[in-house]
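Researcher: I'm preparing a figure for a lab meeting and need a structural model of a single chain. I don't have an experimental structure, so a prediction will have to do for now. The sequence is pasted below. Please return the structure as C-alpha cells so I can convert it later.
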Amino acid sequence: MDSFKESFVNRHIGPASSEQTAMLSFLQTKDLNDLVKQATPATIRLSRALDLQQGLSESEFIDRAKEVAGKNKLFRNFIGLGYYGT
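Model: Understood. Here is the structure written out cell by cell.
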C-alpha cells in the first residue's frame, strides 16, 4: 500500500514537467517556490517550515480514523421531546 502514498501526486491530473517548465518560463520564475514568493505577500508567508507528521497511506488513515472515532461518546439527546416552543 505504500506505493499509493508515494505516487499520490502522479495519480492526479496536472501539468507535465515540460508544461510546468514552459509556464514558469512564461512567468519568468525559476521554480515553484519562486512563483509562490512572487504571488504571496511576505506578510502572510511563514518564515519557517511547517512541522507536519509523516503522511499516511489510505489504509493507515482508515485505521487511525476508526481509532479516533472509537473515542466518541454518545449522550442522550432531548431535541424534539417537547422542551422547546411548547
